[in-house]
Design a protein that fits this description.
With 327 residues, this protein is of the alpha/beta class. It folds into 2 domains: 1-142, Isopropylmalate Dehydrogenase, CATH 3.40.718; 146-289, Isopropylmalate Dehydrogenase, CATH 3.40.718. It is built from 11 helices and 11 strands. A hairpin with a 4-residue loop joins β10 and β11 (293-297). The two termini are 21 Å apart.
């Protein structure tokens, strides 16, 4: 369901009313979902389930909602468009329950509506976002699995080495192992989607990919060696290339087949600005490396329009479609 005070419930309601979710189970609060349906002016019946398996009894034109046992009460009393600790706790409860279903094989994939990082922190959760929380939940005793964030649309797929860190911290976190691990994760994920030999272009960190060390030596010190190590393992990785041009080279557009299937970028904004510029309505966030498929829309909680019924469900619909493709 995402943050109950954001636009997540509205995008779910609109997507379901358009018939774009199929047999989806909403892990969330029934009262919040009913409010979203009303705010969007929709005629969409809802069914509250006692267990996820009861979805088999729900008519196809009815949205199935399962409230997890630890879902906080009184969510309708929280003001929409504002940060609330209770909303963060509710979002976390839904994430935990949905991830448990996916881990147990009781769900094919997980599509997460937007959460608010401040609300999550206010609820006492030590995670900066979905990705880190799901990584911790996927720990089955051997430690959290290495995961990476990919943002994708029909024209561009970008996998990030570092995610929710300050730029200074992100640069400090980069090294040979982090880049090589990202290339391995991207290659394995693409192979699982049916790409036998995905072409991976690697963006440098510095202007002009360092210009031979004139503008920084990270490319020489560890990015190029990591690319070489990946190639020695049979991964079709190339670069590092100048980060201001590699995304144009990789973009798949009419009359312009991209040179790469995936671009690996070193930092969050380096990689996400090009994808989001192409349009957030088709953008999908995919977490690579989890033991289940997880996607989410390429937008946030949009507190400025929450409750207005104007939320665009396009990115959620794209996320649901990609979740099906990945399973």
């Amino acid at each position: 369901m995402g943050d109950p005070c954001g636009i997540g419930p509205e995008t779910i309601a609109r997507a379901a009313a358009a018939g774009a979710l199929g047999r989806a189970l909403v892990v969330g609060d029934v009262a919040v979902m009913r409010r979203a349906v009303a705010q969007c002016g929709l005629l969409l019946p809802l069914a509250q389930l006692d267990s996820p398996e009861a979805i088999a009894l729900v008519p196809p034109d009815c949205l199935a909602v399962w409230p997890p046992p630890d879902l906080p009460a009184g969510l309708l009393h929280l003001s929409q468009g504002q940060v609330h600790a209770g909303a963060g706790a509710a979002a976390a409860a839904c994430i935990r329950a949905a991830a448990a279903l996916a881990m147990a094989g009781r769900a094919r994939a997980l599509v997460t509506a937007p959460i608010h990082k401040e609300a999550l922190a206010a609820a006492g959760l030590p995670y900066p976002g979905h990705t880190e929380m799901l990584q911790a939940l996927a720990d089955q005793g051997a430690g959290p699995p290495p995961v990476r964030m990919m943002l994708a649309n029909p024209e561009l797929r970008v996998v990030l080495v570092t995610i929710h860190l300050s730029l200074r911290q992100a640069i400090a976190a980069l090294d040979f192992g982090a880049v090589l691990a990202t290339l391995r994760i991207a290659h394995r994920a693409a192979a699982a989607w049916g790409m036998a030999a995905p072409r991976i272009g690697v963006a440098g960190l510095n202007p002009h990919a360092g210009e031979g060390g004139l503008f920084g030596d990270e490319e020489i010190a560890f990015i190029a060696p990591a690319v070489a190590a990946a190639r020695a393992e049979g991964i079709d990785a190339r670069g590092p290339f100048a980060p201001d041009t590699v995304f144009m080279r990789a973009r798949h557009a009419p009359g312009h087949p991209g040179e790469f299937d995936i671009v690996v970028a070193m930092t969050h904004d380096h990689g996400l600005i090009p994808v989001k510029y192409l349009g957030v309505e088709q953008g999908v966030n995919v977490t690579l490396g989890l033991p289940f498929a997880r996607t989410s829309p390429d937008h946030g909680t949009a507190f400025d329009i929450a409750g207005s019924g104007r939320a665009d469900p396009s990115s959620l619909i794209a996320a649901a479609a990609m979740a099906r493709q990945l399973t």
